[in-house]
Every structure is written in structure tokens, then in C-alpha cells.
Amino acid sequence: MKTNTGEKPYSCEVCKYSSLKKSDLEKHMRIHTGEKPYSCEVCGYSSSNKSSLVAHMRTHTGEKPHSCEVCGYSCSKKSNLGRHMRTHTGEKPNSCELCGYSCSEKYSLMNHMKTHTGEKPYACEVCKYSTLKKSDLEKHMRIHTGEKPYSCEVCGYSCSNNSSLVKHMRTHTGEKPHTCEVCGYACSEASRLVRHMRTHTGEKPNSCIVCGYSCIEKSMLVRHMRTHTGEKPHSCEFCGYSCSNKTYLMIHIRTHTGEKPHSCEVFGYSCSQKSHLLTHLKSHTGEKPHSCEICGYSSSQKSKLVRHMRTHTGY
Fold first, then answer.
1. What are the structural domain ranges in the chain?
2. How far apart are CA 196 and CA 167, in angstroms?
3. Could you point out which of 106, 130, 209, 256 has its C-alpha 20 to 30 Å from the C-alpha of 70?
């Protein structure tokens, strides 16, 4: 009858908790006293109530008595099944009063609320980094420890986070899940698709503060800035030659190694630079894209046109 009247005669002297049953109050008091009378005989785990111990024992027995009728998923705790069922129903009972955000898990809502308060409770002891989530701090700490727990079973590549391993595996599988809706271009990483889309939109978000030059990729801006600073970070280990672009250094190194990776399939001609091969191929096609505006002379190479123009200018 007390369930109908709402009467709760058993009250906690420490907090405002009250209950219908004396046994429930006794369980509650263990929160304040810290008493944990129920112990696991296998590993020494202890809890304040018997139901928690029963659930814990299933970690040893492997028992999963709670099953999903939709997909067959099973688990050891009824609460886990309740959360799982929301993946089928789409139910999101936890809502933010500030922005209307909703989610299926209470802990997700708690994390979300921190985005409004700006709270970042998890701080790195090595540097000034702080974060909203404990899992993000754990990932960050691997920068300092050098730990790489995720390994590729194919080639032995290892990395600090699972997302990097997922991307790496696509180099073996050839999977390209990110597709351009405009031209059908596909790639393995979302960041590459973002950069590709700029070729359609014309967006150039990276700008030079010195001359106003703008470009699609940040790496292109970094290289451009060297034209102002004169920085040449790439050096030849054979002769001391240095340049601003890594590609230029690779081409230069071939003057020492003699490597000629670009080959003509017709005559077997090979060269160290792709531009040289393209020029050579025009000798087969007869293409002469470089034309004189004065007399109509044309050539396959820009350098030949420059020399020709001197016949008109005299220098």
C-alpha cells in the first residue's frame, strides 16, 4: 500500500535519500560507510551489494544471460542490454537543455555539457594539453611515451591510435570509401577528399601574409613561404646542394646516382625528370606547343623558342 501512498518511512541521516524498504536503506548506507561485504573468491573484487557481485562473477564464468531479440547480441548486465536496444530503436532519452543535443548514453550527455562550460578536466602532466575526454588524453600521452600499440598484421607498421591503423590498412586493401559526388574521384582518407573538393569549388583557404598568394593545401603555402624567407631545408649529402623543395632534392640526387626512372616506351630513352620525358615524347607525336607570335615558328621545347626569339630581339 505504501507504493500507492508514496510513503517512504526509511530515511538516510546523511543525505536526503529515503526508501520504502529497510533493506534498501541498509544498502544505501554503504555508499557513506564504504562497506563492501560481498567479495569475489576468484580475484578479490568486492562490492556493496549482492547484485553487483553476481554481475561481476560473469566476467569469470563468461555467462551472458541477457540477449537481444533483434540481432542476437548478448551481455552479462541488464543495463548493457538496455543501452544496446537503443541502437535498434534510435531512442535518445538524454537531452541537453541548452542546445537540444540528445544522445542514448548518460555519460555522452555529461561529456557534451562540458562543451558549454569549457571544462577540460583531463590534463597532460608533460605539456599544457588538456581535454574533455579521458580517452583523448590517453591517446595524447602516446606522443610523449612513443607507445604504438596498434600494429598491421601484413607489414608490421605500428601506430599510436586505431584510426591511423584503419587508414593504413587501406594501403593493402585498396579500399577508397570517400567519393567525390562531382567527378567520382575516390580516396582512402576524408582529409584528401576535402582537399580534392577545392579543385571544384576554387577555394584556396591558405594565404601568404607577405604577397597574398593563396593555395589549396597548407603544405603548398609552407613551400611558398620559403621564396620570401630564403629557407632551404633540404640538403644533398653528397655535395652540399640545398633547396626549398624536397622534390627538387630528389631530382638533384639523381645527378649523383645516375638514376633515370622515367623511360620512353618507343625508343627506350630514359631520363631523371618527368618534364624531360614529356618533352621527348613530343618528338614522336610531332607536337609543337611553343609558338612565336612574330613569325609563326613553333617548337616542342620552350627553351628552343626562347633562343629563337633572340633572332627577333637581338639579345
1. 2-63, 262-313
2. 18
3. 106
